[in-house]
Amino acid sequence: MKRLLVVCLSISLSDSLPAQAPPSQSPAITAGPAAERFHGFLHPYVTRHVSPPDFENSPRIREMMRGGNLYLSLRDAIALAIENNLDIELERYQFPMAQSDSLRAQGGGLPRGILYTLLQPPTGVGGPLSPLLTQAATQSTPGTTVASNALELGVLSEPQINLSMLGTIPPSNGSPVPMFDPSLYADYNWAHQSPVNLTASGLFTSDVQTGNAGYQQGFSTGTQVSIGFNNTEVNAISPGTALNPYINSDLSLNVTQPLLRGFGRELNRRFIRIGVTQEKISSLLFRQQVIEVVYGVMRLYTDLTALVEDVKVKEETVAFAQKLFDDTKLQVDEGTLAPLELSRARAQVSGAQQDLINSRGLLEEQEAILKNVITRRGNEDPEVRNAHIIPTESLAVPSTDETRPMDELLAAAYQNRPDLNQAGLQLDLTRIGLEGSRNNLRPELDLVGTAQNNALAGQPVLPNSVPGFTGGYGTVLDQIATRKNPTYAIGLQLTLPLRNRVAQADAVRDEVILRQGQVRERQLRNQVQVEVEDAVIAMRRARASYQAAAETRALQEQSLDFEQTRYNEGVSTGFFVIQYESYVAQARSAEVAAKSAYFKARAALERATGSILDDNGVTMEQAIAGK
C-alpha cells in the first residue's frame, strides 16, 4: 500500500506541472487582492480577475498635436492604431480566454473554445475614386450624390471575418477524462436512535458518531484513486452486545484502472493539448487582427493623403476658373466678347466650387473615420474632434518596383500568413478530438483493486469476552498501523455494448468535421493564391494607370496652355478654354487617384504575402503590449 501511495504521488506531481508561461501581454488574468491575501490553502477558492479595458487614448496622440492640428505620418497612424484601436483591444482578450481553457483542461475539464471571428476596419469614403469625385460637377452631367448615413460613409466596420475551419457544430467530447484536480472530503455525523427495534429482550437504543475523511484524484493514465479513513463510534444500550461502546475504523485504498476505454496518457491529456494549441491559435488570430487593422489604416491614410492632394487640385481649378471669369468679365465690359461667354465662365466657377466642396467634404469624413480607427474614444474627445489631420507624407510613386517571382511570393504567403497557419492548427484540434471519439467506441474493461486495513475496539460488556479488541481509539489506530485485520480485493469490470450506435455516430460525425475542415483549409489556401496573384496584377495595373494618368495630365496641361495662348491672341473663345481646363482638372484628379490606387495595391500585396507587419516595423511584442 505504501508503494502504491508513492506511485500515485509521483503521477500526481507529473500531471500538475505548470504549463509553459505565456508571453507578457495585456490584458491578463490576475490574482487580485483577495487571492494575494489568501495565498495558500484558500487560494483555489478565490476568484481570479481579468484586467478591465482602458478607454483613454495613449499619450502619443497629444504629442502629435500642434496648433490644433494632428500631424500624422503613416508610421504614426499605425502606431496609434496599435495602441488605441478597439478591434485590436478586443482581440487581446483572446489571450486570457485561451489561458482559461488551458487551466480548465489541466484540472480535467473540457475546453470551452475560443472565438475565430475578426473585425475589419471601415473602408472609408473611397478616396479620390469615390463616385462623388469621379463625377465632376463641371461635366455636362454633374455629380450631386451625397452620402447620408454611416454605411454610405464607410464609418462602420465591415462584416466579421470568420476563420473557423470546423463550422458551427462542435465535435463530440469523446471518452471522459479523469478529474486531475485532487480533492479532500470529510464528514461528521451524530445520531441518537430510540427506539430502533423492540424485541422480547427489551428496548434497543443507540448513540452513533461517524467521522470520515478521504482523498480522491484522477491521473492521465486513466487511473482513479481514492483513499478513505472511516470511523464509527457506537454506544448501544442493548442486551447481547459484546462491546459497548465500541469504535469501528478502516483505512482503505481503492484504485480503478481502465484497460480499454479511457486508457492512455496521451488520450487523457488530449484536452490539455487542445488548450495549448488554442493558445497558439489565439496568438495567430491576434496577429491576423493586427494585420487587418494595419492594412485598413494604410488604406485610410493613403486615401486621406490623396484627398488632401485632390483638394489642392480643386482649389487650383477654382482659382483658374475665377481668373478666367475675371478676364472674361473685363473683355465683356470692354465689348470685345459677347455676354454669353461670361455666363459660361460663371458656370465654370460654380462647377469648380461644387467640386471643391465635395472634395473637402470627403476629406472631413475621411478624417473622422481615421480618427475613430486610431483612437479609443473616437470623436468624443473635443480636442481630437476639432483637430484636422495633416498628413506629413506625400504620395510619391517609386520609379521601379521590386519584382519577385510568383513562386517566391506564394511561398512567403504560405509561411507568413497567420490565417493559413491557424487553419492547420484547427485541423490538429479536430484530429486530437477524433482520438477521444474513436476511443469511446471501445468496451469498458476496468481493473479494480482494493486494499483496506480494519480495526475494532471497545469496552467489553463481560470481562475477557473479546480478547484483543479491548481499548479505545489508540487501540484502533494501532490495529490499522500494524495491519492486523487486512482486506484485499482485485477484480475486472466489463461493460460490453451490444450496439454501439451513439459512439459510432459521434466518431463518424467528428471525422466528417475533420474532412470538412480540410476542404475549408484548401479553400483558404486557394484564396491566398488568388489574393497574391490579384495583388500582383493590381500593382502592375496601378503603375501602368499612373504612368498613363501622368502622361495624360502633362498633355492636357500643354493643350490648355496652347488654348490659353490662342484665347489671349483672340483666335479662340472662352468655351474652348473652359473645356480644356475641365480636361486638365479631371486629368490631375485622375493622376492623384492613380497614385492612391498604386499605394493601396502595394499594401494589398504586403497583406497577401503576410509581410505587412515586418515591412512597417510592427512587432508582435509591441502589438500585444499595445505600445
Could you characterize the architecture of this molecule?
- By secondary structure, the chain is of the alpha+beta class.
- The chain has two domains: 9-174 and 278-432 and 511-625, Outer membrane efflux proteins (OEP), CATH 1.20.1600; 183-218 and 223-261 and 444-496.
- The protein is 52% helix and 17% strand.
- The protein is built from 19 helices and 13 strands.
- The strands form four sheets. It has a six-stranded antiparallel beta sheet.
- The longest helix is centred in the last third of the chain and has 68 residues, at 501-568.
How many discrete domains?
2
Estimate the mean pLDDT confidence.
84
Q: How many beta strands in the DSSP annotation?
A: 13
In the CATH hierarchy, the architecture of the largest domain is: Up-down Bundle
Derived from helix and strand composition plus strand pairing, the structural class reads alpha+beta
Shape: elongated
SS summary, helix count: 19
Quaternary structure classification: single chain
Percent range for β-strand residues: 15-25%
Question: What is the fourth-level CATH superfamily of the largest domain?
Answer: Outer membrane efflux proteins (OEP)
CATH topology of the largest domain: Outer membrane efflux proteins (OEP)
Helix content range: 40-55%
Backbone CA Rg: 40 Å
Low-confidence stretches: 1-25, 140-153
